[in-house]
From TrEMBL:
Tree of life domain: Eukaryota
Source species: Wallemia mellicola (strain ATCC MYA-4683 / CBS 633.66)
Family, per entry: Belongs to the DENR family.
Localization: Cytoplasm
Keyword field contains Transferase: no
Xref: InterPro entries: DENR/SUI1_TIF, DENR_C, DENR_eukaryotes, DENR_N, SUI1, SUI1_dom_sf
NCBIfam families recorded: DRP1
Name of the protein: Translation machinery-associated protein 22
Keywords annotated in UniProt: Cytoplasm, Initiation factor, Protein biosynthesis, Ribonucleoprotein, Ribosomal protein
Annotated signal sequence range: none
GO biological process: formation of translation preinitiation complex; translation reinitiation
TM ranges: none
């Protein structure tokens, strides 16, 4: 009887992920932060850095590339990095100038709603945030579009002060907010119709 063949077990290679782009370190060159990735790798994992970016490693990697192709690759990487850095700086400046608006809207004498606008400018996920407010205040909260067509969170009841406290506390899904987020509170009452009754005749 023939012996059963035994398959050789190939040891699994541990994957090391970059702390900057979150790619496996072998693929950092395809990210838009290659320069910062290399700096991080050299500081945090010097042995891995040497295996990938030492002179010998680069020679082996670039051996089949012409000088012109190598220069073009470096230029493309630098160009992508510059674009990524410019975009990141723009987002930071936008967040610095942005503010969150909390509006207390009185629909009737007994019905008041609290509207929270511009959370998405700070990368806050609106649906989880609405759920957080609903759980906190034990009331209804939903994501709707305001008259300007922008998403906002509407919470049932007058909770403007409590919402402001939560924004500054920066808990859970609100943790992405900056420490000194600008908050503006407004009070919006329902407009009363100024219409004369049809039964009122004109006095001549």
């Amino acid at each position: 009887m023939a012996e059963a063949s035994t398959s050789q077990v190939v040891p699994q290679k541990d994957i090391v992920y970059c702390g900057i782009c979150q790619f496996p370190v072998e693929y950092c060159e395809f990210s838009n932060s290659f320069k910062r990735c290399k700096q991080w790798l050299e500081e945090e994992l010097p042995e891995v850095y040497i295996s990938l970016y030492s002179e010998n490693a680069l020679k082996d990697k670039m051996g089949s590339l012409s000088v012109e192709a190598e220069k073009k690759l470096e230029q493309d990487v630098a160009k992508n990095e510059a674009k990524a850095e410019k975009k990141a700086l723009k987002e930071i400046e936008q967040k610095k100038s942005s503010k969150i608006t909390i509006i207390r809207e009185e629909r009737t004498k007994r019905k008041v709603t609290t509207h929270i606008q511009n959370l998405d400018a700070f990368s806050v996920e609106l649906k989880p945030a609405a759920k957080l407010f609903a759980q906190k205040f034990a009331t209804g909260a939903s994501v709707t579009k305001n008259p300007q067509g922008k998403d906002e969170i509407v919470v049932q009841g007058d909770v403007t002060d409590e919402v402001e406290d939560m924004l500054h506390a920066r808990q859970k899904v609100l943790s992405v907010l900056p420490e000194k987020v600008k908050v503006i509170k407004e009070d919006k009452k329902k407009k009363k119709a100024n219409v004369e009754g049809a039964e009122d005749g004109h006095q001549e």
